[in-house]
Amino acid sequence: MIILRSVLFNTLFYLNLIAQMIVMTPAYFLLPRKKAYGIAKTWARSCHWLFAKVVGTTFEIEGLENVPKGTGYIFAPKHQSFWDTYGLLPWMDDPFYILKRELMWIPLFGWYLRKQRMVPVDRSARGKAMAAVMERAKAEMRAGRQLIIYPEGTRRPPGAAPEYKYGIARLYRDLGVPVVPIVMHPGLFWPRRKFIRYPGHFKVRVLPPIAPGMEPDAFLAHLIDVMETASDRLLVETAEANPNLPLPFSAAARLAELKARAA
C-alpha cells in the first residue's frame, strides 16, 4: 500500500507542478512580483494537501512567534528533503534564495525565479562576482525580504553528523541581520533520492532568532549547538510519535546514541 500511495503521490505531485506552471503562467507574469508569489504559495498548499490525502503525512509548525516582524532576516532550516524547499513558503512573507545560476537557465522555471529576483551565483566565482552577489542580497534585505539559506549546504540524512558550512557565518556578518534557525525531520517521511513516501506526522520547530553582532566563528559554534540540540530533541519526539515509521540507519544510530547518553 505504501508503494502504491508513493507512486500515486509522486505522479500527482509532478502533474500538479506542471499544470500549475502552465495554467498560471499568464497571471504570474502579469501580476506585480510580490502578488505573483501568492501563486507559488498556493501551489505549496496544494502539495501539502496531496501529501496528507494521498500518503497520509501531516505536519504542524511551532514557534512562528519567533519570526522577526518588519525587518529582513535569514531563515536557516535543516535540509533533509525536497519538502524543505517549498514546505514553509505559505508562512513566509517574501523570501528569496541565493541559488546556482544554472537554475535560472531552465525554461519557464528559470523565468519564475527571475521574476522573484532570486540571486544567482556561479559557484566557481570569486572576487568581484561574489561581491556582486552580496550586494544583491543586501539590496533584497533592505527591501524587507527573507533569505533562505541551508546551513549545511545540501540535503543530509536525518540524524547524520552535522556538516555546517562557513558560508552562513559570512552572510550573518556581512548582512547584519538576525538568523532564525529551524529544525525539522521531513526526511523521515520524504527520504532524499528515494521515491517512497511514508505516512505519519512531524513538527517544524522555529527557534528564537540569533541577533546580529556576534563574531562569525562564535556565531557558527552557537548556531550548531542550538540547532543540533533542538534537532536531537525533535528526532526523539518524532520517532516516539510515529512508532511504526521505518527509520533510516542514520536516524536509528543517532537515537541509540542519545538513549545511551541519557542512560
TrEMBL record:
InterPro entries per UniProt: Plipid/glycerol_acylTrfase
Functional pathway: Lipid metabolism
Keywords: Acyltransferase, Membrane, Transferase, Transmembrane, Transmembrane helix
Domain spans labelled Phospholipid/glycerol acyltransferase: 73-187
GO molecular function: acyltransferase activity
CDD domains attached to this UniProt entry: LPLAT_AGPAT-like (cd07989)
Record-annotated membrane-spanning stretches: 12-31
Domain of life the protein comes from: Bacteria
Designated name of the protein: Lysophospholipid acyltransferase family protein
SMART domains in the record: PlsC
